[in-house]
Design the sequence.
């Protein structure tokens, strides 16, 4: 490699440093330039986040790689690279497992013997992440000078430094969000990550940043399993209350007689079994955020009492006349249409309007395009680690099946599907494999190529009535069939349907199935 070829490759990246580019595009150009300089079959840029390496850009690896999170302690090659001051090339006969085994595009088996090298990136003299290169030819990197990779790594570090400085400037424009980020980094607390690259997902993230910096009450709506609690956590993390508690309560998981005690607390002797004084969720969340999940399940009586607290900030513990003042930001979530509940007299209009100061809709998974592959990658890596496998991957037909499926249970259904399919596929192996590949057959998703209803088929009578009756008819048939498959085990049926056990019980009661 000549100095001229190195300069020719690096100059466009130097020019990019002064240009305003989206982060993803900046990193994509970086990898393209590296593959032009150092020809290889797969390359990746990974950011170090605590004990984990997070892929920011990949080239030559499967799409789901971007959704994976690699724990450094479980991947010795990554640990070696991070512990080296400069580039490292692994011997072709290295016995260290390769984290990309099974993930290289176009390769359906093991990586076997191959060429692999990488280099740590440092920003402000602190380890920032890694650049990695893999080649299927064992002689590919023989003549490559590691100095060339070091030179490239220095420019790569400058590139990510520029990208992070731009991000920090954007954060300063939102002072409250900046304070939340500073607290998160200082405390070392890691909130669950929201994974996705679709336009729908990015719009949601922008809305979270916007409303997070305010103190407005937020009503998160969306189908079961879309991740409403994750959104609530993100809003809290983006708020000025991020250093205060985030207290959660699932309103559907408790009997109505206990909801008030959980929310407002009680004094000793307030009811049978109240042996000690106890603070409620509002007092525990004082100064912070209270997240009420399944808020559509609250009774009219509890709604009225909650309304008073939201209006005045004052509450009374059950059995006490003493007033307690609280400062709480409320975030609520529901999969019900509360406006429709109000129209039908099942929900208080004043309480609904108090909740929906800032409504936030979370899209269904089927509306998020290829995000399903990123999320699948995240869950695959989780299960790979949990099951002690070298690699857990999806075949191309499995990718197609995931993209074609409608996902009525959304992200939660995807998570359960990956875990269940991996366990079953491993159980079907006579010997423990190095790479476990999940095919469309293993996922056992409906055949999307087969028409669900023939065009000439008559419309069922139930579907000719109004929408509410048709929906309830469909729900009854779906729940009944699911219960029969699980020998009327309600907990198992709830898991398959992607519902909380208590929610399924309430729904069945409303549909007269109990």
Sequence:
């Amino acid at each position: 490699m000549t100095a001229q070829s190195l300069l020719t490759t690096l100059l466009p990246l130097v020019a990019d440093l002064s240009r305003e580019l989206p982060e993803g595009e900046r990193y994509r150009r970086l990898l393209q330039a590296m593959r032009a300089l150092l020809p290889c079959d797969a390359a990746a840029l990974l950011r170090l986040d605590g004990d984990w390496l997070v892929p920011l850009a990949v080239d030559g690896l499967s799409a789901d790689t971007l959704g994976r999170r690699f724990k450094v302690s479980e991947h010795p090659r990554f640990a070696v690279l991070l512990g080296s001051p400069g580039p490292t090339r692994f011997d072709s006969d290295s016995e260290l497992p390769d984290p990309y085994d099974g993930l290289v595009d176009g390769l359906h088996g093991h990586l076997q013997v191959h060429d692999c090298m990488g280099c740590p990136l440092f920003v402000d003299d602190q380890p920032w992440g890694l650049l990695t290169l893999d080649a299927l030819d064992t002689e590919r990197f023989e003549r490559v000078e590691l100095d060339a990779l070091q030179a490239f790594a220095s420019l790569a570090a400058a590139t990510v430094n520029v990208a992070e400085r731009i991000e920090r400037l954007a954060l300063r424009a939102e002072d409250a969000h900046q304070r939340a980020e500073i607290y998160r980094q200082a405390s070392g607390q890691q909130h669950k990550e929201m994974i996705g690259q679709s336009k729908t997902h990015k719009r949601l993230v922008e809305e979270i940043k916007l409303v997070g910096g305010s103190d407005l009450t937020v009503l998160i709506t969306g189908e079961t399993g879309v991740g409403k609690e994750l959104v609530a956590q993100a809003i809290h993390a983006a708020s000025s209350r991020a250093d205060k508690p985030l207290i959660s309560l699932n309103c559907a998981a408790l009997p109505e007689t206990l909801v008030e005690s959980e929310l407002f607390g009680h004094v000793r002797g307030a009811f049978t079994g109240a042996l000690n004084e106890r603070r409620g969720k509002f007092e525990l969340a004082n100064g912070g955020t209270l997240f009420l999940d399944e808020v559509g399940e609250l009774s009219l009586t509890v709604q009225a009492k909650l309304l008073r607290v939201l209006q005045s900030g004052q509450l009374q513990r059950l059995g006490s006349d003493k007033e307690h003042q609280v400062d709480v930001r409320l975030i609520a979530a529901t999969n019900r249409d509360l406006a429709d509940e109000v129209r039908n007299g099942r929900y208080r209009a004043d309480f609904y309007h108090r909740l929906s100061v800032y409504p936030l809709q979370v899209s269904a998974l089927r509306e998020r395009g290829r995000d399903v592959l990123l999320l699948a990658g995240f869950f695959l890596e989780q299960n790979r680690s949990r099951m002690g496998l070298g690699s857990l991957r999806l075949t191309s037909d499995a990718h197609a099946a995931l993209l074609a499926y409608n996902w009525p249970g959304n992200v939660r259904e995807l998570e359960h599907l990956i875990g269940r399919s991996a366990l079953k596929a491993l159980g079907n192996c006579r010997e423990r494999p190095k790479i476990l590949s999940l095919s469309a057959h293993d996922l056992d998703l409906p055949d999307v190529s087969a028409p669900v209803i023939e065009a000439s088929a008559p419309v069922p009578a139930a579907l000719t009535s109004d929408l509410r009756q048709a929906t309830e008819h469909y729900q009854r048939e779906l729940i009944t069939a699911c219960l029969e498959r699980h020998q009327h085990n309600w907990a198992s049926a709830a898991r398959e349907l992607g519902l909380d056990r208590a929610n399924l019980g309430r729904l069945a009661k409303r549909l007269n199935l109990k």
